[in-house]
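Thread: quick sanity check before group meeting

JM: Hey all, I'm pulling together slides for Thursday and realized we never actually wrote out the predicted structure for the chain we discussed last week. Dropping the sequence here so it's in one place. If anyone has concerns about the input, flag it before I start.
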Amino acid sequence: MIFSGFGENYKDITITNGSTGAILLKSISIYFKTELEQVAAPVISCEGNVVTIGCATEGASVVYSVDGSEPSEAYDGPFAITETCTVRAKATKEGMAGSEVAEKECVYEAPAVKPGTPVVSVGGAVVAGEEFSVDYGTKVSVSAENATSLRVEYGSESQVVEGNTYEFAATADETYIVTPLNDKMPERDQEGDAAMFTIAINAPEILAVMNGEAAIKEYGSIVAKAGTEITVETKSCAEITVDNDGFAVAVTDGKFAIANEGSYIITASNPARQEKAEWMFEVTIPEEPEYEVNETLSWDITGVANGNAATANCDTRLNKGDGSANGDWTAIATKCYSGSNNGAQLGSGSGPFVNGTLTLSGSDIPADATITAVSMKGIPGNVDMAWELSVNGVKADGQINFPKAGTNYGKANHQTKTIDGLELAGNEIVLTMVSAGGDKAFYLSGISVSYYVLAEPEAPSFVKDEVMQEGSTIVYTVKHGKIHYHIEDASAANGSMLRVSAPTDGWTEAKENGGKQFTYEYAAGSNHNIYVKNVVNGKEALGEAINVNTSGIVTGVEDVAAEGAAGVRELYNLQGVRVSEADAVPGVYIERRGGRVAKVVL
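JM (edit): ok, ran it. Output follows.
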Protein backbone atom coordinates (compact mmCIF):
# COMPACT_ATOMS: atom_id res chain seq x y z
CA MET A 1 0.00 0.00 0.00
CA ILE A 2 1.52 3.35 -1.00
CA PHE A 3 0.62 6.86 0.29
CA SER A 4 1.92 9.95 -1.48
CA GLY A 5 1.57 13.77 -1.48
CA PHE A 6 3.60 14.67 1.63
CA GLY A 7 5.81 17.33 0.09
CA GLU A 8 9.37 17.60 -1.17
CA ASN A 9 11.08 15.86 1.74
CA TYR A 10 8.77 12.86 1.90
CA LYS A 11 7.10 12.07 -1.48
CA ASP A 12 5.49 8.76 -0.57
CA ILE A 13 5.24 6.20 2.26
CA THR A 14 4.89 2.43 1.66
CA ILE A 15 3.29 0.03 4.17
CA THR A 16 3.81 -3.72 3.44
CA ASN A 17 1.95 -6.65 5.07
CA GLY A 18 4.40 -9.37 5.85
CA SER A 19 1.77 -12.10 6.53
CA THR A 20 -0.37 -14.20 4.13
CA GLY A 21 -3.60 -13.51 5.93
CA ALA A 22 -6.12 -10.75 5.38
CA ILE A 23 -5.85 -7.36 7.24
CA LEU A 24 -8.75 -5.17 8.23
CA LEU A 25 -7.44 -1.52 7.98
CA LYS A 26 -9.56 0.94 9.89
CA SER A 27 -7.30 4.12 9.97
CA ILE A 28 -3.73 5.39 9.48
CA SER A 29 -2.11 8.34 11.38
CA ILE A 30 1.16 9.93 10.24
CA TYR A 31 3.04 12.47 12.44
CA PHE A 32 6.00 14.54 11.21
CA LYS A 33 8.09 17.60 12.21
CA THR A 34 9.43 20.38 10.01
CA GLU A 35 12.33 22.96 10.71
CA LEU A 36 10.97 26.44 11.43
CA GLU A 37 12.66 29.46 9.93
CA GLN A 38 14.48 31.58 12.59
CA VAL A 39 13.73 35.25 13.18
CA ALA A 40 16.64 37.58 12.37
CA ALA A 41 18.63 38.83 15.38
CA PRO A 42 17.76 42.40 16.44
CA VAL A 43 20.14 45.28 15.61
CA ILE A 44 20.91 47.67 18.50
CA SER A 45 22.22 51.20 17.86
CA CYS A 46 23.16 53.93 20.39
CA GLU A 47 23.46 57.56 19.39
CA GLY A 48 23.07 60.72 21.38
CA ASN A 49 22.13 58.71 24.50
CA VAL A 50 19.12 57.22 22.56
CA VAL A 51 18.81 53.48 21.92
CA THR A 52 17.10 52.15 18.78
CA ILE A 53 16.38 48.46 18.16
CA GLY A 54 15.41 47.09 14.74
CA CYS A 55 14.74 43.64 13.24
CA ALA A 56 15.01 42.54 9.60
CA THR A 57 12.12 40.05 10.00
CA GLU A 58 8.92 41.85 9.15
CA GLY A 59 6.20 41.66 11.81
CA ALA A 60 8.58 40.41 14.50
CA SER A 61 8.13 41.52 18.12
CA VAL A 62 11.17 42.66 20.14
CA VAL A 63 11.84 42.50 23.89
CA TYR A 64 14.90 44.01 25.60
CA SER A 65 16.69 44.69 28.89
CA VAL A 66 19.21 47.39 29.94
CA ASP A 67 20.81 45.69 32.95
CA GLY A 68 22.36 42.71 31.15
CA SER A 69 19.55 40.33 32.20
CA GLU A 70 17.35 38.13 29.97
CA PRO A 71 15.30 40.42 27.64
CA SER A 72 11.69 40.80 28.85
CA GLU A 73 10.57 44.41 28.31
CA ALA A 74 8.51 44.95 25.11
CA TYR A 75 10.19 47.37 22.72
CA ASP A 76 7.78 49.94 21.29
CA GLY A 77 10.20 52.55 20.03
CA PRO A 78 13.52 54.39 20.72
CA PHE A 79 14.26 55.13 24.40
CA ALA A 80 16.82 57.30 26.26
CA ILE A 81 19.54 56.13 28.70
CA THR A 82 20.91 58.11 31.63
CA GLU A 83 24.00 56.05 32.27
CA THR A 84 26.26 53.62 30.49
CA CYS A 85 24.53 50.23 30.26
CA THR A 86 24.44 46.88 28.46
CA VAL A 87 21.39 46.51 26.18
CA ARG A 88 20.18 42.99 25.26
CA ALA A 89 17.35 42.25 22.75
CA LYS A 90 15.50 39.23 21.28
CA ALA A 91 12.88 39.03 18.44
CA THR A 92 10.00 36.53 18.01
CA LYS A 93 7.24 35.82 15.45
CA GLU A 94 4.45 33.27 15.38
CA GLY A 95 5.29 30.25 13.23
CA MET A 96 9.03 31.01 13.38
CA ALA A 97 11.86 30.14 15.72
CA GLY A 98 12.98 32.93 18.08
CA SER A 99 16.11 34.95 17.24
CA GLU A 100 19.49 34.86 18.90
CA VAL A 101 19.96 37.40 21.72
CA ALA A 102 21.76 40.56 20.53
CA GLU A 103 23.92 42.55 23.01
CA LYS A 104 25.64 45.95 22.95
CA GLU A 105 27.19 48.34 25.48
CA CYS A 106 25.77 51.85 25.13
CA VAL A 107 28.03 54.56 26.54
CA TYR A 108 26.31 57.49 28.14
CA GLU A 109 27.63 60.84 26.95
CA ALA A 110 27.11 63.71 29.36
CA PRO A 111 25.53 66.74 27.82
CA ALA A 112 28.09 69.25 26.60
CA VAL A 113 28.70 72.07 29.09
CA LYS A 114 31.17 74.91 29.21
CA PRO A 115 34.55 73.67 30.60
CA GLY A 116 35.59 74.67 34.10
CA THR A 117 38.67 76.70 35.10
CA PRO A 118 41.80 74.49 35.20
CA VAL A 119 43.08 73.28 38.59
CA VAL A 120 46.84 73.02 39.22
CA SER A 121 48.37 70.18 41.28
CA VAL A 122 52.00 69.74 42.34
CA GLY A 123 53.13 66.31 43.48
CA GLY A 124 49.50 65.23 43.68
CA ALA A 125 48.39 68.14 45.92
CA VAL A 126 46.25 71.04 44.65
CA VAL A 127 48.06 74.38 44.96
CA ALA A 128 46.37 77.73 45.49
CA GLY A 129 47.61 81.04 44.18
CA GLU A 130 49.23 82.10 40.95
CA GLU A 131 52.91 81.82 42.04
CA PHE A 132 54.67 78.88 43.62
CA SER A 133 58.13 77.30 43.89
CA VAL A 134 58.97 73.68 43.10
CA ASP A 135 62.04 71.49 43.00
CA TYR A 136 63.63 70.76 39.64
CA GLY A 137 61.79 67.96 37.82
CA THR A 138 58.70 68.08 40.06
CA LYS A 139 55.57 66.71 38.34
CA VAL A 140 52.95 69.43 37.70
CA SER A 141 49.41 68.53 36.59
CA VAL A 142 46.72 70.87 35.17
CA SER A 143 43.17 69.53 34.62
CA ALA A 144 39.75 71.02 33.76
CA GLU A 145 36.30 69.46 34.02
CA ASN A 146 34.28 69.02 30.81
CA ALA A 147 37.29 69.92 28.63
CA THR A 148 38.04 67.93 25.50
CA SER A 149 41.42 69.69 25.02
CA LEU A 150 43.69 72.28 26.67
CA ARG A 151 45.59 75.12 25.02
CA VAL A 152 48.92 75.56 26.84
CA GLU A 153 51.02 78.71 26.40
CA TYR A 154 54.39 79.48 28.02
CA GLY A 155 57.06 81.87 26.81
CA SER A 156 56.86 81.84 23.01
CA GLU A 157 55.56 78.26 22.95
CA SER A 158 51.94 77.23 22.39
CA GLN A 159 50.42 73.77 22.00
CA VAL A 160 47.02 72.07 22.18
CA VAL A 161 46.85 68.95 24.36
CA GLU A 162 44.04 66.44 23.74
CA GLY A 163 42.01 65.44 26.80
CA ASN A 164 41.29 67.37 29.94
CA THR A 165 44.71 66.95 31.66
CA TYR A 166 48.20 68.31 30.93
CA GLU A 167 51.19 66.98 32.89
CA PHE A 168 54.83 68.10 32.72
CA ALA A 169 58.06 68.18 34.73
CA ALA A 170 59.03 71.65 35.94
CA THR A 171 62.54 72.45 34.69
CA ALA A 172 62.57 76.24 34.21
CA ASP A 173 61.19 79.46 35.65
CA GLU A 174 58.13 80.10 33.50
CA THR A 175 54.62 81.56 33.40
CA TYR A 176 51.92 79.24 32.03
CA ILE A 177 48.48 80.09 30.59
CA VAL A 178 46.19 77.06 30.26
CA THR A 179 42.83 77.52 28.47
CA PRO A 180 40.22 74.69 28.53
CA LEU A 181 38.22 73.87 25.37
CA ASN A 182 35.10 71.76 24.73
CA ASP A 183 34.60 71.09 21.00
CA LYS A 184 31.14 69.59 21.64
CA MET A 185 29.81 73.00 22.53
CA PRO A 186 28.75 75.62 19.98
CA GLU A 187 31.85 77.39 18.71
CA ARG A 188 31.13 80.58 20.64
CA ASP A 189 30.89 78.62 23.92
CA GLN A 190 33.79 76.17 23.48
CA GLU A 191 36.42 78.18 25.39
CA GLY A 192 36.37 78.27 29.20
CA ASP A 193 38.16 80.55 31.66
CA ALA A 194 41.95 80.26 31.53
CA ALA A 195 44.28 79.63 34.49
CA MET A 196 47.58 81.52 34.70
CA PHE A 197 50.36 80.55 37.11
CA THR A 198 54.07 81.17 37.50
CA ILE A 199 56.59 78.51 38.52
CA ALA A 200 59.97 79.26 40.14
CA ILE A 201 62.53 76.43 40.36
CA ASN A 202 64.19 76.05 43.76
CA ALA A 203 67.96 76.21 44.11
CA PRO A 204 69.68 72.80 44.31
CA GLU A 205 70.53 71.35 47.72
CA ILE A 206 72.66 68.45 48.92
CA LEU A 207 70.68 66.83 51.71
CA ALA A 208 73.07 64.05 52.71
CA VAL A 209 76.22 62.22 51.64
CA MET A 210 76.22 58.62 52.83
CA ASN A 211 79.12 56.22 53.28
CA GLY A 212 77.04 53.07 53.52
CA GLU A 213 74.65 53.71 56.41
CA ALA A 214 76.88 56.38 57.94
CA ALA A 215 76.34 60.01 56.98
CA ILE A 216 79.36 62.16 56.18
CA LYS A 217 78.25 65.12 58.27
CA GLU A 218 81.37 67.16 58.80
CA TYR A 219 84.51 67.87 56.90
CA GLY A 220 87.26 65.40 57.65
CA SER A 221 89.01 62.32 56.41
CA ILE A 222 86.96 59.17 56.04
CA VAL A 223 88.76 55.88 55.68
CA ALA A 224 87.33 53.94 52.75
CA LYS A 225 88.64 51.20 50.51
CA ALA A 226 88.82 51.73 46.76
CA GLY A 227 85.45 50.81 45.30
CA THR A 228 83.47 51.98 48.34
CA GLU A 229 80.10 53.33 47.17
CA ILE A 230 79.08 56.83 48.23
CA THR A 231 75.42 57.86 47.93
CA VAL A 232 74.36 61.49 47.46
CA GLU A 233 70.84 62.63 48.37
CA THR A 234 69.82 65.89 46.72
CA LYS A 235 66.88 68.22 46.31
CA SER A 236 65.94 70.24 43.22
CA CYS A 237 68.89 68.72 41.41
CA ALA A 238 69.27 67.82 37.74
CA GLU A 239 72.93 66.81 37.71
CA ILE A 240 75.49 65.61 40.24
CA THR A 241 79.18 65.89 39.41
CA VAL A 242 82.11 64.76 41.53
CA ASP A 243 85.69 66.04 41.31
CA ASN A 244 88.60 64.12 42.82
CA ASP A 245 91.55 66.51 42.85
CA GLY A 246 90.90 67.67 39.29
CA PHE A 247 89.63 64.38 37.88
CA ALA A 248 85.95 63.77 37.10
CA VAL A 249 84.30 60.80 38.85
CA ALA A 250 81.44 58.93 37.18
CA VAL A 251 78.08 59.34 38.97
CA THR A 252 75.12 57.02 38.31
CA ASP A 253 71.75 57.43 40.03
CA GLY A 254 73.31 59.61 42.70
CA LYS A 255 76.05 57.10 43.50
CA PHE A 256 79.79 57.00 42.83
CA ALA A 257 82.71 54.82 43.86
CA ILE A 258 85.88 55.88 45.68
CA ALA A 259 88.83 55.42 43.34
CA ASN A 260 91.69 57.45 44.81
CA GLU A 261 92.65 59.25 47.95
CA GLY A 262 92.34 63.01 48.23
CA SER A 263 89.62 65.63 48.19
CA TYR A 264 86.17 64.88 46.77
CA ILE A 265 83.98 67.83 45.81
CA ILE A 266 80.33 66.99 45.07
CA THR A 267 78.40 69.57 43.03
CA ALA A 268 74.61 69.54 42.58
CA SER A 269 73.07 71.80 39.92
CA ASN A 270 70.05 72.38 37.72
CA PRO A 271 69.76 74.43 34.49
CA ALA A 272 67.27 76.87 36.01
CA ARG A 273 69.74 78.19 38.58
CA GLN A 274 73.25 79.55 38.34
CA GLU A 275 74.01 78.82 41.99
CA LYS A 276 75.20 75.31 42.80
CA ALA A 277 75.37 73.28 45.98
CA GLU A 278 78.76 71.82 46.95
CA TRP A 279 79.99 69.37 49.55
CA MET A 280 83.62 68.43 50.21
CA PHE A 281 85.31 65.65 52.15
CA GLU A 282 88.68 63.92 52.27
CA VAL A 283 89.27 60.22 51.65
CA THR A 284 92.08 58.07 52.96
CA ILE A 285 92.36 54.60 51.44
CA PRO A 286 93.56 52.12 54.06
CA GLU A 287 96.70 50.16 53.45
CA GLU A 288 96.33 46.44 52.77
CA PRO A 289 97.32 44.58 55.94
CA GLU A 290 100.95 43.54 56.09
CA TYR A 291 101.70 40.45 58.14
CA GLU A 292 104.67 39.38 60.19
CA VAL A 293 103.14 35.89 60.21
CA ASN A 294 100.06 34.60 58.36
CA GLU A 295 99.74 30.84 58.37
CA THR A 296 97.82 27.71 59.40
CA LEU A 297 99.20 25.18 61.86
CA SER A 298 97.91 21.60 61.73
CA TRP A 299 98.25 18.70 64.13
CA ASP A 300 97.47 15.06 63.35
CA ILE A 301 96.13 13.25 66.39
CA THR A 302 97.09 9.64 65.72
CA GLY A 303 96.16 8.33 69.14
CA VAL A 304 96.42 8.77 72.88
CA ALA A 305 98.45 7.26 75.66
CA ASN A 306 97.45 3.69 76.53
CA GLY A 307 96.41 2.73 80.03
CA ASN A 308 98.06 4.84 82.69
CA ALA A 309 101.20 5.31 80.64
CA ALA A 310 102.17 8.92 79.97
CA THR A 311 104.14 10.43 77.12
CA ALA A 312 105.78 13.80 76.77
CA ASN A 313 103.13 14.77 74.25
CA CYS A 314 99.88 13.86 76.02
CA ASP A 315 98.24 14.61 79.31
CA THR A 316 97.88 11.42 81.34
CA ARG A 317 94.23 12.15 81.97
CA LEU A 318 93.42 12.08 78.27
CA ASN A 319 92.36 8.42 78.38
CA LYS A 320 92.92 6.35 81.48
CA GLY A 321 92.16 3.13 79.64
CA ASP A 322 89.82 1.89 82.37
CA GLY A 323 86.53 2.78 80.69
CA SER A 324 86.01 5.86 82.82
CA ALA A 325 85.02 9.17 81.30
CA ASN A 326 87.42 12.09 81.27
CA GLY A 327 86.02 15.48 82.27
CA ASP A 328 88.87 17.65 81.02
CA TRP A 329 92.09 17.05 79.18
CA THR A 330 95.01 18.96 77.76
CA ALA A 331 97.40 18.53 74.84
CA ILE A 332 100.31 20.76 74.00
CA ALA A 333 100.77 21.99 70.42
CA THR A 334 102.54 18.89 69.13
CA LYS A 335 101.35 15.32 68.40
CA CYS A 336 99.82 12.55 70.47
CA TYR A 337 100.46 8.88 69.76
CA SER A 338 98.79 5.52 70.41
CA GLY A 339 97.78 2.41 68.55
CA SER A 340 94.20 3.49 67.96
CA ASN A 341 93.24 3.40 64.28
CA ASN A 342 90.35 5.78 64.92
CA GLY A 343 92.29 8.73 66.35
CA ALA A 344 92.18 9.88 69.93
CA GLN A 345 89.13 8.42 71.64
CA LEU A 346 87.54 10.86 74.08
CA GLY A 347 85.15 9.14 76.44
CA SER A 348 84.54 5.41 76.73
CA GLY A 349 81.32 5.10 74.77
CA SER A 350 79.92 2.96 77.59
CA GLY A 351 78.89 5.68 80.00
CA PRO A 352 77.99 9.37 80.16
CA PHE A 353 80.81 11.51 78.81
CA VAL A 354 81.23 14.58 80.99
CA ASN A 355 81.91 17.80 79.07
CA GLY A 356 85.61 18.07 78.37
CA THR A 357 88.03 20.65 77.10
CA LEU A 358 91.04 20.64 74.81
CA THR A 359 93.56 23.39 75.36
CA LEU A 360 96.13 24.21 72.69
CA SER A 361 98.90 26.55 73.77
CA GLY A 362 102.63 26.92 73.58
CA SER A 363 105.31 28.55 71.50
CA ASP A 364 103.95 27.38 68.12
CA ILE A 365 101.30 30.13 68.19
CA PRO A 366 102.68 33.59 69.05
CA ALA A 367 101.19 35.35 72.05
CA ASP A 368 100.22 38.37 69.91
CA ALA A 369 98.44 36.25 67.28
CA THR A 370 94.94 36.89 65.99
CA ILE A 371 93.04 33.63 65.44
CA THR A 372 90.89 33.57 62.25
CA ALA A 373 89.76 29.93 62.02
CA VAL A 374 89.88 26.66 63.98
CA SER A 375 89.14 23.25 62.43
CA MET A 376 88.62 19.83 63.98
CA LYS A 377 88.74 16.51 62.16
CA GLY A 378 86.88 13.70 63.85
CA ILE A 379 83.67 11.77 64.30
CA PRO A 380 81.24 11.29 67.21
CA GLY A 381 79.91 7.93 68.26
CA ASN A 382 76.16 7.53 68.56
CA VAL A 383 74.96 11.07 69.23
CA ASP A 384 75.32 14.51 67.67
CA MET A 385 78.09 16.52 69.32
CA ALA A 386 79.21 20.13 69.27
CA TRP A 387 82.29 22.02 70.42
CA GLU A 388 82.46 25.57 71.68
CA LEU A 389 85.58 27.67 71.10
CA SER A 390 87.23 30.40 73.12
CA VAL A 391 90.56 32.19 72.70
CA ASN A 392 92.23 33.68 75.76
CA GLY A 393 88.89 33.57 77.55
CA VAL A 394 86.88 35.26 74.75
CA LYS A 395 84.14 32.98 73.46
CA ALA A 396 83.56 32.74 69.69
CA ASP A 397 80.12 33.01 68.17
CA GLY A 398 78.74 29.71 66.94
CA GLN A 399 79.89 26.12 67.44
CA ILE A 400 81.69 23.32 65.62
CA ASN A 401 78.94 20.76 65.01
CA PHE A 402 79.38 17.06 64.18
CA PRO A 403 76.48 14.73 63.26
CA LYS A 404 76.49 11.26 64.83
CA ALA A 405 78.28 8.51 62.89
CA GLY A 406 76.23 5.46 63.82
CA THR A 407 78.41 2.51 62.83
CA ASN A 408 80.53 4.30 60.23
CA TYR A 409 83.69 4.53 62.30
CA GLY A 410 87.26 4.73 61.06
CA LYS A 411 89.46 7.65 60.03
CA ALA A 412 88.25 7.35 56.43
CA ASN A 413 84.85 8.58 57.62
CA HIS A 414 86.11 11.44 59.78
CA GLN A 415 84.75 14.87 58.88
CA THR A 416 86.46 18.24 59.08
CA LYS A 417 84.37 21.01 60.63
CA THR A 418 85.46 24.64 60.89
CA ILE A 419 84.49 27.75 62.77
CA ASP A 420 85.87 30.74 60.87
CA GLY A 421 85.39 34.46 60.36
CA LEU A 422 87.13 34.91 63.73
CA GLU A 423 89.16 37.87 64.95
CA LEU A 424 90.16 36.64 68.41
CA ALA A 425 93.46 37.79 69.91
CA GLY A 426 95.71 35.41 71.83
CA ASN A 427 97.25 31.96 71.63
CA GLU A 428 95.42 29.88 74.25
CA ILE A 429 92.70 28.03 72.35
CA VAL A 430 90.16 26.10 74.38
CA LEU A 431 87.68 23.71 72.75
CA THR A 432 84.86 22.63 75.07
CA MET A 433 82.58 19.75 74.17
CA VAL A 434 78.86 20.43 74.56
CA SER A 435 77.29 17.13 75.63
CA ALA A 436 73.76 15.81 75.70
CA GLY A 437 72.88 12.82 77.88
CA GLY A 438 73.64 9.24 76.90
CA ASP A 439 76.62 7.01 76.18
CA LYS A 440 79.00 8.62 73.77
CA ALA A 441 82.54 8.91 72.55
CA PHE A 442 84.28 11.31 70.21
CA TYR A 443 87.21 10.33 68.00
CA LEU A 444 89.63 13.14 67.18
CA SER A 445 92.20 12.79 64.39
CA GLY A 446 93.27 16.36 63.66
CA ILE A 447 93.18 20.03 64.63
CA SER A 448 94.26 23.08 62.63
CA VAL A 449 94.47 26.76 63.57
CA SER A 450 94.75 29.72 61.19
CA TYR A 451 96.17 32.95 62.57
CA TYR A 452 98.09 36.07 61.72
CA VAL A 453 100.36 38.57 63.41
CA LEU A 454 100.34 42.08 61.95
CA ALA A 455 103.69 43.67 61.25
CA GLU A 456 104.73 46.53 63.51
CA PRO A 457 106.53 49.56 62.06
CA GLU A 458 110.23 50.00 62.70
CA ALA A 459 112.14 53.21 62.15
CA PRO A 460 113.83 53.21 58.73
CA SER A 461 117.53 52.36 58.83
CA PHE A 462 119.96 54.04 56.45
CA VAL A 463 123.44 53.68 54.96
CA LYS A 464 125.40 56.58 53.47
CA ASP A 465 128.62 57.41 51.81
CA GLU A 466 131.28 58.38 54.30
CA VAL A 467 131.77 61.77 52.69
CA MET A 468 128.85 63.54 51.06
CA GLN A 469 129.62 64.97 47.65
CA GLU A 470 127.78 65.33 44.38
CA GLY A 471 126.27 61.96 43.48
CA SER A 472 126.56 60.55 46.99
CA THR A 473 123.49 58.69 48.29
CA ILE A 474 121.64 57.91 51.46
CA VAL A 475 119.61 54.69 51.20
CA TYR A 476 116.76 54.10 53.67
CA THR A 477 115.16 50.64 54.02
CA VAL A 478 112.42 48.93 56.06
CA LYS A 479 111.32 45.29 56.31
CA HIS A 480 107.58 45.97 56.53
CA GLY A 481 105.57 49.01 55.54
CA LYS A 482 106.33 51.93 53.27
CA ILE A 483 108.79 54.75 53.68
CA HIS A 484 107.46 58.30 53.55
CA TYR A 485 109.92 61.15 53.26
CA HIS A 486 110.01 64.94 53.40
CA ILE A 487 112.86 67.23 52.38
CA GLU A 488 113.12 70.88 53.37
CA ASP A 489 115.58 73.61 52.49
CA ALA A 490 117.67 73.96 55.64
CA SER A 491 119.24 77.26 54.56
CA ALA A 492 115.89 79.00 55.11
CA ALA A 493 115.78 77.95 58.78
CA ASN A 494 117.15 79.99 61.64
CA GLY A 495 118.38 78.90 65.03
CA SER A 496 120.93 76.47 66.30
CA MET A 497 120.07 73.09 64.82
CA LEU A 498 117.02 72.40 66.96
CA ARG A 499 115.89 68.80 67.13
CA VAL A 500 112.38 68.23 65.73
CA SER A 501 110.32 65.07 65.37
CA ALA A 502 108.49 65.75 62.12
CA PRO A 503 108.13 68.32 59.33
CA THR A 504 105.14 70.60 59.00
CA ASP A 505 103.80 69.21 55.73
CA GLY A 506 104.38 67.35 52.48
CA TRP A 507 105.13 63.69 53.22
CA THR A 508 105.75 61.74 50.00
CA GLU A 509 105.49 57.97 49.70
CA ALA A 510 108.59 56.30 48.35
CA LYS A 511 107.91 54.25 45.21
CA GLU A 512 111.25 52.48 44.95
CA ASN A 513 111.06 48.77 45.80
CA GLY A 514 107.36 49.02 46.65
CA GLY A 515 107.96 51.81 49.13
CA LYS A 516 110.31 49.73 51.27
CA GLN A 517 113.31 51.69 50.08
CA PHE A 518 114.09 55.35 49.51
CA THR A 519 117.33 56.67 48.00
CA TYR A 520 118.39 60.30 48.44
CA GLU A 521 121.04 61.54 45.99
CA TYR A 522 123.12 64.57 46.99
CA ALA A 523 123.44 67.47 44.55
CA ALA A 524 126.24 70.01 44.79
CA GLY A 525 125.42 72.98 46.97
CA SER A 526 122.51 71.22 48.69
CA ASN A 527 121.70 71.88 52.31
CA HIS A 528 118.62 69.87 53.27
CA ASN A 529 116.77 68.60 56.29
CA ILE A 530 115.59 65.03 55.61
CA TYR A 531 112.72 63.39 57.46
CA VAL A 532 111.67 59.75 57.04
CA LYS A 533 108.99 57.58 58.62
CA ASN A 534 107.70 54.05 58.16
CA VAL A 535 103.94 53.49 57.90
CA VAL A 536 102.41 50.01 58.21
CA ASN A 537 98.97 48.80 59.31
CA GLY A 538 97.89 52.27 60.37
CA LYS A 539 100.90 52.83 62.60
CA GLU A 540 104.05 54.78 61.96
CA ALA A 541 107.61 55.00 63.29
CA LEU A 542 109.74 58.09 62.71
CA GLY A 543 113.31 57.75 61.58
CA GLU A 544 116.12 60.02 62.64
CA ALA A 545 115.72 63.57 61.35
CA ILE A 546 119.01 64.60 59.75
CA ASN A 547 120.67 67.48 57.94
CA VAL A 548 122.83 66.84 54.90
CA ASN A 549 125.34 69.26 53.35
CA THR A 550 128.89 69.30 52.09
CA SER A 551 130.11 68.76 55.64
CA GLY A 552 128.33 65.48 55.90
CA ILE A 553 125.36 64.41 57.97
CA VAL A 554 124.50 66.07 61.25
CA THR A 555 121.89 64.74 63.66
CA GLY A 556 119.12 67.26 64.23
CA VAL A 557 117.66 69.93 61.98
CA GLU A 558 117.07 73.62 62.11
CA ASP A 559 113.64 75.16 62.60
CA VAL A 560 111.12 74.09 59.98
CA ALA A 561 110.07 76.78 57.53
CA ALA A 562 106.41 76.86 56.50
CA GLU A 563 105.76 75.68 52.97
CA GLY A 564 103.89 78.07 50.68
CA ALA A 565 100.81 76.86 48.85
CA ALA A 566 99.99 77.67 45.26
CA GLY A 567 96.55 77.74 43.66
CA VAL A 568 93.24 79.46 44.07
CA ARG A 569 91.95 79.61 47.62
CA GLU A 570 88.68 77.75 48.31
CA LEU A 571 86.92 77.84 51.69
CA TYR A 572 84.60 75.16 53.14
CA ASN A 573 82.81 75.16 56.47
CA LEU A 574 83.12 72.23 58.87
CA GLN A 575 80.08 70.59 57.29
CA GLY A 576 81.96 70.39 53.99
CA VAL A 577 79.86 73.08 52.27
CA ARG A 578 81.76 75.62 50.18
CA VAL A 579 81.40 79.29 51.15
CA SER A 580 82.68 82.43 49.50
CA GLU A 581 85.20 84.60 51.33
CA ALA A 582 82.76 87.50 51.11
CA ASP A 583 80.12 85.50 53.04
CA ALA A 584 82.50 83.90 55.54
CA VAL A 585 82.02 84.92 59.16
CA PRO A 586 84.85 84.63 61.70
CA GLY A 587 85.51 81.02 62.65
CA VAL A 588 87.28 77.79 61.64
CA TYR A 589 87.24 76.80 57.96
CA ILE A 590 88.82 74.27 55.62
CA GLU A 591 91.12 75.89 53.09
CA ARG A 592 91.91 74.15 49.81
CA ARG A 593 94.68 75.60 47.69
CA GLY A 594 95.79 73.49 44.74
CA GLY A 595 96.54 70.02 46.13
CA ARG A 596 96.80 71.17 49.77
CA VAL A 597 94.04 71.10 52.35
CA ALA A 598 94.34 72.65 55.82
CA LYS A 599 92.23 74.12 58.62
CA VAL A 600 92.39 77.89 58.95
CA VAL A 601 90.94 80.47 61.33
CA LEU A 602 89.38 83.60 59.88
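AS: nice. The chain has a mean pLDDT of 81. The longest strand covers residues 442-454.
JM: adding both to the slides.
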